[in-house]
């Protein structure tokens, strides 16, 4: 991984060098005296500056470093993209699950309201018919508001089921 310092140094070498684009003009045999580095109108006298020389020499090390850094950053972007995609899928699934659970919860609440009202309807029917709430056998009156099952002996207090004592 390139350090901040290395990046700054490379930037400084780029800034110090003669602006590009540069071109190579070669003639005859490959020889340093027969190579010119031409940069548009910047090299008016066909000469390169000392900074240009440093830039060229260090390019041999800087470019591989920069290429490695590009590879590292590309891998990192892919890794983060994968993490992001996984997180997005998880969020979507969680959202769906919450929606599903909310629907199910609402359905259960509605069912429980229905069930309670059905229990109270059946309780009324049993009590009106003089039947036991536990075993549905016949009950007898024990006290004014108390009935007792002949089968299981359960005592039923009618006042607890909304019945009022008859007024005298
Ligand atoms: Zn009973």
Q: Would you kindly provide a written description of the structure presented here, covering whatever features stand out?
A:
The chain is built from 2 helices and 5 strands, in the order αββαβββ. The protein starts with a helix and ends in an 11-residue tail after the last strand. The protein has 2 domains: about 5-130, no CATH class; about 130-168, no CATH class. Strands 3-4-5 form a 3-stranded antiparallel β-sheet, with no helix packed on it. A two-stranded antiparallel sheet has the order 1-2. The chain is rod-shaped and about 130 Å long. With about 170 residues, the chain is mainly alpha-helical. The protein binds zinc ion. Zinc ion (ZN) binds next to loops.
Tally of contiguous helical segments? 2
Radius of gyration: 46 Å
Overall 3D shape:
rod-shaped
What strand line-up does the widest sheet have?
Answer: 3-4-5
Arithmetic mean pLDDT: 86
Secondary structure: elements and pairs:
Layout: H1 4-16, E1 23-26, E2 35-38, H2 50-128, E3 139-143, E4 146-149, E5 155-157
Antiparallel strand pairs: 1-2, 3-4, 4-5
Helix pairs in contact: 1-2
Quick recap of the structure?
The chain is mainly alpha-helical and 168 residues long. The chain is built from two helices and five strands; from the N terminus they run H-E-E-H-E-E-E.
Using brief descriptors, characterize the structure shown.
168 residues, mainly alpha, 2 domains, three-stranded antiparallel sheet, 5 strands, 55% helix, binds zinc ion
